[in-house]
Write a structure and sequence with these properties.
The protein has four helices and no strands. It is mainly α. It is a multi-pass membrane protein.
Length: about 70
């Protein structure tokens, strides 16, 4: 029962948001507060993000789609 709760969509979304939001906020703060020191290529990170999304769409197909997913066109 606990495993089913942990693997539910709202819990997974909450875990992802807990990890992503602070990281994104810190990266944005560092970029804005001292732009001279930042040597990270933003374009490369955006490209990596888009490539990851596209590979996820191709490789992580939904084997058993739910009714609401079919209605959305997923």
């Amino acid at each position: 029962v606990i495993c089913r709760v942990i693997l539910s969509a709202p819990v997974r979304l909450a875990i992802i948001l807990i990890l992503v939001v602070p990281d994104f906020a810190l990266a944005t703060y560092r970029r804005v507060s001292n732009p001279e020191q930042n040597k990270i290529g933003v374009t490369a990170h955006i490209g990596g993000f888009l490539a990851g999304i596209m590979m996820g769409l191709v490789l992580m197909r939904n084997i058993t789609p739910l009714r609401w997913e079919k209605n959305l066109g997923w």
